[in-house]
Structures are given as C-alpha cells and as structure tokens.
Design brief:
Strand content: 5-15%
Distance between the termini: 22 Å
Shape: globular
Largest sheet: 5 strands, parallel
Number of strands: 14
Structural class: alpha/beta
Number of helices: 18
Length: 438
C-alpha cells in the first residue's frame, strides 16, 4: 500500500480551490502572467503603483516571471489566480521551507484573520517542518474587543428608543451576561448592517431616534467609519453617533514582541491592513527586537512565499521587513485614507482581549466631532466585567496556546454555541481551527 505524500495533497488542494470572481473587493486589478518553466506568477497593478513585479524575496530559481499589460475579463482574472495556486510552485516553496528550516524551533505568527483561514483551508500547518509552528495572533478585530466594550454596547442597546447597528459578527459575541443578539431577542432594537453608511440611512429614516453604530475594526475599516462621520456632519444627522472601539495593529505587535512568555521568530504581516498603513510602521520589529516580518497576500503562493522568506531571514540572521504582496501594498500605503482617519480620530489607550491595556493602540473620536461620539453622548451604567469561565481566547490571541489546547474547544465551545469571541467570527482563530480541523 502506498502512502500519500501530504505535500502533494496540499498542492492538489491548492489547485482545486475556487477562483475568486473578478471584481472581488479584496482583489486588486489583475495583469497577464507570462508563464515560466516551473510556474506562473502574476503581478497586479494597484491604485498606488503603476508597475509591479513579484516580490524580490522570491528565489529566482523558482522561475517566477514578471508581468505586463492590464486585463479586464473573468478569464484573465482566473488565469491570474490560477498562477497564485500553481501546484508546482507550491511544491517548490514547501520544499524550500523544509530545506531552510533546520532543527531549531521556529515560531511564526500571523496577525490577520484572513491569513488564519487561508492557512487552515490549504492545510499548511500539517505540512510544515516539525520544528516550525504557525501561531495565530490578534488578527481578528471581533476577537480582540474587550468584554467591557461589548458590555457598553449592550448597555446602550437597553436605552429606550436607541437603535444599535453593527456588523454581523458582533451580534453574537458574548459579553459578561448577554450579547447584542440576546438583547435583540429581548425586544431591543439591534440591527445588523453591512456598512456604516447603512447606519446613516437608518438614522435619516428615524430622525426622532438615536442611532448608534458600534465601530469595530483595524486600519482597514476605520477609514469607512471616518467617512460615515464626515457624511453625517455634512447631512447634519444629529441623531447619529459611533461607539468607537477601533484598534491599530503595530502597538499590538510591539506588545507581543515584548511578551517574555511568547517567543515569536517572525511575523506574517497583514495584507489588508498594510494596504492602508504601508510597510514602514512595522520597521520597529527589526530595529527594536531583531524580528523579521513579511507582508503577504492570501493565496497559497503568497503565504508560502512569506513563510519561506521569513525562514530564510531567520536562517541567515539578517532580519528585514519585506513586502511579498506588491500587487496590493506599497511602501507608503494609502495616505488619503490615513488622512481621513487622522481628521476624525486621535490615538488613545485601550484594552485588548488577551493583551490587556496597550498605550496608544486605540482610536477615539476627536473633540471637533464629539457630537457623533456615543461614549460622550450617552452616560450609561455598565455592568461589572466578567470573563467567560474556562475560555482561553486571551492565551490564543497571544500565541501562548493553539485553539485545540483550550479545554472548551469543540466541546462546550463551538461555532453554533460559542463561549468566547474567537469561536464567533468566521476569521477567529478557534472558528478557523474548528472548521478545518479534519
């Protein structure tokens, strides 16, 4: 009887993955790939760059080609994504990782929920060298929202006449004694929206009622909340406000790098966040801690290239911050989006689930826009915070344990009946591990 090589199984899984539709909001416009002998790779133009090539960190021996010429058809988009899932290139990158890893323990942490899901979907943890561990960090904004912030939103939902709006995942996150979904079931007006602009529409349609949007997210979503506040000001929607529990990524990375109980040898840096921030905010990882980082995309070749690049830098002892997602990220990110955020928000100290208080890691609404600040407009009593008993979401978010090491995982805590937030969001570490555990 023959045994199936797990590396070949992963390559087959990669090749059979569904292709994103052209126009996907998370995908940059595509370019035609020139097919190399070993594989095909495409570089994609972005609004922030006129030309692009595959990351210079990719080993030239893998035969990755540069690209030319924009394309607009579904077939062209499919060809691009097929190139990022090429089984031969996938296999070559996996073999390079094994060749470089050596025997020393290596801990790499991804800090983006979409990376967590992609790594699980393609089975990458199962085919890494035994000494290389892929840890999931604080990359899911729903998961890192502290119980006290959820309790405040629940308290606001109980105010007579108030309409609470938020994204779907936040509805089910348990607070100390309730959740927004439970408050909705109890008769309070809690509504799921797909965009903060939906909340503006609700405010316009209900001029006699306060409409509060619970703003949760990292640098990727914060510009949309800032735009909604500016639009509310332009429309003079005095009944609209935002409960801001936004967070920024670099301070959390610093907290993890400083944690003596968590040894991280390299960071797989977030692709979505970096489209806004660029790569410069991560350079402190090298300067202050000697830890390398690589910004990657979300396709199999993206992630494997990032891992291979990190292992190469760890092996050489020459850490850098590299960009392996040039089709979506440039060095300076999106200055226009950042300027909008800076106009509306200012840094503040906030508490992260699992990480505790982190100075300057939150964003509060500036005094010039305080009429849209729900925390200032509504002085509501918030119940004492009680953490879920037995839940180890905090340790998962710090990289101290993997989700299956939590005693509640898959037993008392499942996606259908979550105890902690990491099992609620589809991009939460526990939910991703549970979904792809087979």
């Amino acid at each position: 009887m023959t045994t199936r090589d797990p590396k070949n199984a992963v390559a087959a899984n990669v090749a059979s993955a569904p292709t994103p539709r052209a126009g996907n909001s998370n995908v940059a416009p595509a370019s035609n790939p020139r097919i190399g002998s070993a594989s095909a790779m495409a570089a994609m133009a972005t609004p922030n760059s006129n030309t692009d090539t595959v990351s210079a960190t990719t080993p030239p021996s893998l035969g990755i080609a540069e690209t030319a010429g924009p394309t607009n058809t579904t077939a062209d988009a499919r060809a691009v994504f097929d190139a990022f899932r090429d089984p031969a290139l996938t296999r070559a990158l996996i073999e390079r990782i094994h060749a470089l890893a050596g025997d020393r323990p290596i801990n790499l942490m991804e800090v983006c929920g979409t990376h967590t899901v992609s790594i699980g979907r393609y089975g990458f943890r199962s085919i890494m060298p035994a000494n290389l561990h892929l840890l999931s960090g604080p990359g899911c904004p729903v998961c890192v929202t502290a119980n006290q912030d959820i309790d405040r939103a629940i308290a606001l939902a109980r105010v007579d006449g108030v309409i609470i709006t938020t994204f779907g995942d936040m509805m089910r996150v348990p607070g100390s004694t309730s959740s927004l979904a439970a408050e909705k079931a109890a008769g309070h007006d809690v509504r799921m929206v797909y965009s903060p602009l939906d909340a503006l529409t609700i405010a316009q349609e209900n001029p006699g009622r306060p409409v509060i949007f619970m703003g949760v997210g990292f640098e990727t979503t914060t510009p949309t909340i800032a735009a909604a506040i500016l639009e509310a000001q332009a429309r003079d929607l005095q009944n609209f406000s935002v409960l801001s529990v936004h967070k920024t990524t670099p301070p959390a990375l610093r907290a993890i790098a400083n944690d003596p109980q968590t040894r991280i040898d390299g960071f797989i840096l977030p692709g979505h966040v970096s489209t806004i921030t660029g790569i410069n905010p991560y350079r402190f990882l090298v300067d202050d801690f000697g830890i390398p980082g690589v910004v990657t995309g979300f396709e199999p070749v993206d992630i494997l290239e990032g891992i291979a690049s990190l292992v190469e830098m760890i092996d050489s002892g020459l850490p850098e911050i590299r960009n392996a997602y040039r089709r979506g990220v440039n060095e300076d990110g999106n200055p226009v989006a950042r300027q909008m955020v800076e106009q509306v928000f200012e840094p503040c100290d906030v508490t992260w689930r699992g990480l505790g208080p982190i100075p300057g890691s939150g964003l509060r609404i500036r005094p010039a826009f305080e009429t849209f600040d729900a925390a200032k407009r509504f002085d509501v009593p918030v119940e004492p915070t009680v953490e879920p008993r037995g839940c180890r979401c905090g340790d998962v978010l710090r990289g101290r344990i993997s989700p299956p090491e939590c005693p509640l995982f898959g037993k008392a805590c499942t996606p259908a009946d979550p105890v902690g937030p990491c099992m609620v969001s589809s991009e939460g570490s526990c939910a991703a591990y549970h979904r792809f555990r087979s």
